[in-house]
Each structure stands twice: as structure tokens, then as C-alpha cells.
Amino acid sequence: MYEPLIEAARRHTDGARTLADVRTLARFHRIQSTPGYDEAARWLLGALDAAGLAAESREVAADGSTRHLGFPMPEGWRCRSARATLHHRGGTEAVADFATAPLSIVQRSASGRGRWPVVVIDSPSELAHTDVRGRVVLTSGPAQRMHELAVVEHGAVGLVCDGRRLMPPVRTAEHDLDLQGLSGRPQRRQQDGELLAVVP
């Protein structure tokens, strides 16, 4: 039943062009309700128009409360610059820099500037007996859950995450080892009491 339609579409497909389009889209920092997402959408509209297809876009308020197609629209977010530097006895070490590695900054992070001591918390249970107020928490745990517990509930000023979300068998601890440096992960594990300097 579908074979004639698939065959008709196959005659007009170009694998090389498709790959080139995917590579172009991948260069945009495509987080919802951000300038990068808007730029990617504008590029896609232009590409469709160039291919002779009629396309249109719809703008929806990015205010965190407006619902569209049944989903709440995320609040608009823009990061112009952000950098975190670890200060320790051996000197300094870059931990995250939005200019060189946008994914090293957790999306929708709040702005901040200052120096704070680092405390290592890898399990939520450690928060019951560790004071994190006024400190930056280094964790390998889930970023969103640790933010809720350490920052919102216990008063930490922020998080540095050096864990990866594993999804066996698709992604195990042995996958993507050559890409870990792109996340802004330092070359060695930070220690309690070291200072993290953050500038917006």
C-alpha cells in the first residue's frame, strides 16, 4: 500500500544533501525559546523555500505559562557569555566557558558572579549531614534533581556536574569518552574547599 508512495519519495531524496542539512542544523545552539532556536527555524524556512516548498512559522509567547499544542512554552533564555574557573593550590583551571563550549553551561542557568567554595556531593543522602549553603556543589548525580535538593532546598549557590546520563545499552560509561572534554569537565576531580570563580 505504501510502497508506491515510498518509491516516489525515494526518487526525489538526496542522502548527501540531507546529511549536509543535518550538519548545518547541528551548528545552531537549539535550546527551546532561545535565539539559537529562532535562528535554526529561520534557516529551515529559507531552506524549504529554496526547495520550492511553501512553509510558514508560528510564533508563540515564550513566557513559561502560555500553552501551545497542549504543552507549556518554556520561558525565553539567552546566554551571551559565562565562564567558571577553578582555583586550587596548583593554579587555575577552566571548568566551563560558553564561548568555546556552549553545552558546558546547563541550559536556563541563572546569571551570577563571585567566588564560592566547592563541596562534593554525589548522593542526595549526603545533604542530610553536609552544609552546602553558600557553596557550589560538585556532583555526578542527575543535574535537575540535585538542583532541586542542593540549591532550592538547602541553599547552595549552584552546581557543577561532572556526571553523564547513561542509558544502557545506547550510552554506557565507555561511550563518548573522546567527547567528554566538550562538556567543560575538568581534567581531575575537584576537592572540597577549592574555590570556583564564576563570571557572566
Structural notes for this entry:
By secondary structure, this protein is an alpha/beta fold. The protein has 4 helices and 8 strands, in the order H-H-H-E-E-E-E-E-E-H-E-E. It has helices at residues 3-10, 15-26, 35-50, 143-153, and strands at 67-68, 71-72, 83-88, 91-97, 114-120, 136-139, 158-161, 195-199. The strands form 2 sheets. It has a 6-stranded mixed beta sheet with strand order 4-3-8-5-6-7, covered by helices on one side. Strand 3 and strand 4 (91-97) form a beta hairpin. The chain is elongated and about 65 Å long. Mean pLDDT is 83; it is low at 181-188.
From the N-terminal CA to the C-terminal CA, the straight-line distance is: 57 Å
Strand line-up of the largest beta sheet: 4-3-8-5-6-7
User: What order do the helices and strands follow?
Assistant: HHHEEEEEEHEE
| pLDDT averaged residue by residue | 83
Assign the structural class, choosing from mainly alpha, mainly beta, alpha/beta, alpha+beta, or little secondary structure.
Answer: alpha/beta
Helix content estimate: 10-25%
Q: Which segments are poorly predicted (pLDDT under 50) over 5 or more consecutive residues?
A: 181-188
Total E-strand runs:
8
Largest sheet: 6 strands, mixed
Strand content: 15-25%
**Rg calculated over all Cα atoms:** 21 Å
The number of helical elements comes to 4
- Shape designation: elongated
